[in-house]
Design a protein that fits this description.
Shape: elongated
Number of strands: 11
Helix content: 40-55%
Structural class: alpha/beta
Order of helices and strands: HEHEHEHEHHEEHHHEEHHHEEEH
Largest sheet: 6 strands, mixed
């Protein structure tokens, strides 16, 4: 990894790749309010996040945009603490502030990839609270978007799952989502910045790694170049459609869904039948999640739709954290109370 830039060091000539990355950062910055707080780059020391940190260090001063960095040490590999320290020193040398390291313990719930992701995002959330920053900047690329779409297809995801990642989702911002991974690497080479390659990115134990190293290259070989671009474009189109349907569903929820208590939602069956299933499915899924349940699976949604179109007096459907049943012409969703809590309420 390159040493910090000294004040007398000659700046490299701006190459097309360097210009592309800096332009993407400027365009993102034009969409946010720089007067109400700063942002933290999620920095790992890998090529993608280093390119983002480098571009922000070049552009942020001129934009009057406060930018720091958060480095998450997952403790999953030997030497991770040292690499985190090196990344922090480089960010500091580039003028990013504040720069903090968050050391996390990764569990095993949901598999190694999901467990690491949860730990990482929890660390981002804590760092934002500690520093007062408004958001975390992630260096996801067009290639990451293509991988996400392929994984969604393999898992049978609907439009909501195939829409991929957004430039902004809550506290998370992705300024480089329109650029390829190779563009970021070329920008670093042109800027004279070295990066660390995480061996987990090529580890065939992980589904995303297999897609990255085997599936996408095979598709490019058999179908011709541009597959990643096409998949990323597909995600963008799905996102447009999904957001429109989400808007229609939210309008239906606001007008027709009753919230009797914190743990209960209901809606008339006729309202759901009047709407297209793409909208009614979103309404029902939102109702379940509003009372604390998990997103219903495809099989569960098929059962739920059976209550609408093939009603024969079926019993309540048991979902993750909620129950759903048809009662006197209404679909009623209730939070499921754990047995231990029920026992306490009964004085047992």
């Amino acid at each position: 990894m390159a040493p910090r830039r000294e004040s007398g060091h000659r700046r490299p000539r701006l190459s097309p790749a360097m210009a592309d990355v800096r332009r993407a950062v400027r365009e993102w910055a034009g969409l946010v309010d720089a007067t109400t707080g700063g942002y933290l780059v999620a920095l790992s020391g890998g090529g993608d996040s280093l390119a983002l940190a480098w571009a922000l260090s070049e552009e942020a001063p001129g934009l009057a945009l406060p930018v720091g960095a958060v480095i998450v040490d997952h403790q999953l590999q030997a030497g991770s603490a040292e690499r985190a320290t090196i990344a922090a020193e480089l960010a500091t040398g580039w003028g990013l502030s504040p720069v903090i390291i968050k050391t996390v313990t990764v569990g095993d719930a949901g598999g190694p990839e999901e467990a690491a992701r949860k730990a990482r995002y929890q660390a981002f959330s804590e760092a934002l609270k500690e520093t007062g920053a408004k958001g975390a900047l992630l260096a996801h690329t067009k290639d990451d978007q293509a991988e996400t779409v392929l994984l969604g297809l393999a898992r049978g995801s609907g439009p909501s799952g195939l829409k991929g990642m957004a430039v902004r989702e809550g506290m998370v911002h992705r300024p480089l989502l329109e650029l390829s991974r190779e563009t970021l690497r070329q920008a670093l080479r042109d800027a004279g910045v070295e990066w660390w390659d995480d061996p987990h990115n090529d580890d065939d134990r992980f589904a995303r790694s297999r897609v990255r190293t085997h599936v996408l290259p095979l598709l490019e070989q058999e179908l011709g170049p541009g597959v990643a671009d096409s998949l990323a474009r597909t995600a963008s189109l799905f996102r447009q459609d999904s957001e429109a349907l989400d808007g229609f569903a939210q309008a239906c929820i606001s007008e027709h869904v009753d919230a009797e208590t914190v743990g209960q939602r209901s809606v008339r069956v006729e309202i759901l039948l009047e709407n297209n299933s793409a909208i009614s499915s979103r309404v029902l899924r939102s109702m379940v999640m509003a009372v604390g349940g998990g997103p219903p699976s495809f099989a569960q949604m098929s059962q739920i739709h059976g209550l609408l179109t093939q009603w024969r007096g079926q019993s309540a459907i048991d979902l993750s954290g909620a129950t759903l049943e048809r009662v006197e012409g209404r679909i009623v969703v209730k939070a499921r109370i754990p047995k231990a809590v029920k026992g306490i309420r009964r004085g047992l």
